[in-house]
Amino acid sequence: MRASSVKFCTAFLITYSLALGTSGHSCQPDPCQNGGTCLAGVSSDPYYCICMDGFTGKDCNEVEQGPCHPNPCQNGGLCELMSRRGDVFGEYVCKCPTGFQGIHCQTNIDDCSSQPCINGGQCVDLDADFSCHCPSPYVGKSCQHTCASALGMEGGAIDDHQISASSLHLGFLGLKRWRPELARLNNKGIVNAWSMATFDLNPWFQVLSPSEYFHSE
């Protein structure tokens, strides 16, 4: 309803109420809240409230929520009003999070549609993501790497932070440190491997990969 129509209807009802002489005790004290206008004798109820913009209810005591309450958008979508005319809410639009689409964000986008897995990998669609089940010897987000060359321990595909151990051996005055990240194939130099500490009674060496870890004792 447009604002001009609301004003016309309000004026008409007030005039009609006064003409009937029924604007008395039903509106005293005024039961209409939040600036509402009280009219008596215009319906079967003792009084009728014409509410200000943004309020509703018999006594104008309820906040008009609009179409975004409750939220019609699914999967974490954000509901936004496009416009509001007079006391009538306009249309709304759902702002969808990454990975979803549709009027109400109800459709999960198929992240496997672009066939991101290579080298025979099997794609599994997730929420705003995908996962590849890679056949041996391939690894990586899209099965783009191979473990054919000793899991990257020689070529450097496995980073130092992926390698850990139970302890390390300290050489002369602690100047030589046989750290776990030195456990590379064909390593050069005087300190060219990992060695456990003398007091280590339960030695272990661990190499982490993106999907699993290898642990030897």
From TrEMBL:
Alphabetical UniProt keywords: Disulfide bond, EGF-like domain, Glycoprotein, Repeat, Signal
Residue ranges annotated for the EGF-like domain, each copy included: 23-61, 64-106, 108-144
Occurrences of domain F5/8 type C (ranges): 147-217
Single GO term (MF): calcium ion binding
Cystines in this chain: 32-49, 51-60, 96-105, 134-143
Pfam families: EGF
Signal peptide: 1-24
Keyword Zinc: no
Name of this chain's protein: Delta-like protein
Source lineage: Eukaryota, Metazoa, Chordata, Craniata, Vertebrata
